[in-house]
Amino acid sequence: AAVQEVMEPAVVEVDEVAVEEVMSVEEMSSATRRTSLQPSPQPPPQSPLREVTQVARGLLDRLACQEARKMLLPLADSTDCEARCLLARSCVLLAEEAIEGRRKAEALQLAIECLTHAEAAVASDGESAEARVWFGQAIQMKARAVDGGIGQARVCGLMVRSWDLAVELAPNDPLPHHLLGSFAFHVSALPWVAAQSMRKLAPGLRKFTAAEAMHHLLCSEERQPRPPYGYAVTNCSLLGRLYLGRGAKAEARVWFDRALELAPQFALDKTAEQAVVAARKARARC
């Protein structure tokens, strides 16, 4: 008779350590899946005030000054430094337009308003470089609206001190350097008699040189974000003219080309438009 062999079931040894490792990996994977399904943390929402100032700043960058001012007017009595700075900025630009359009009463009203906002911004935050920038702009705009060029000359010393303080407060901000560099460029190019007359009208106004103009304009360009601000067009045009004045034609061409390359990317104010015209003419000669 055939002998039936009874096969005993095989005994499988279990590596408990390996199982624990597999389970650990599975638990981690499950936890990862659960985490990935959860919404990622969102940044805290902006306050309504900051939303308004952010939109207004964008409008001003595009020279939509009336629209920006209309949006900011409900904040005309605010103690918020940024809001008052932006109101001062919008009024400065609108006053400039009114002066160019020979609308004297409107220009004077806007000039007074811009100085009121700038003074409020400084009072709100004396350590704000932006407040100091627009205070300097506002005092010269009011002087121009009231007394023309003579009025502007009288406040130049105070204006420059305000911009110098802005540089001290925010050394990496390109705007105060742009303003000081532009001012130094034009003052250093004045005939000796005119420069002396200006310093008599503006006690305390220091002497400016072409080298100082170049220093500030280069500082402004080195601190520009990418893409740059629109006033980089003016910086580049003035730098080209300064290098050309030194006889450095190759460097001048680089800056003129940069100005002409940037110009189509921005809404340009009158100063920048004039800078583009000057760059184009000078580039043709070098």
UniProtKB/TrEMBL annotation:
InterPro entries: RMD1-3_a_helical_rpt (IPR049039), TPR-like_helical_dom_sf (IPR011990). It comes from the Eukaryota. SUPFAM superfamilies: TPR-like. Residues 28-39 have a biased composition (Low complexity). Residues 28-49 are annotated as: Disordered. This is KIF-binding protein. It comes from Haptolina brevifila.
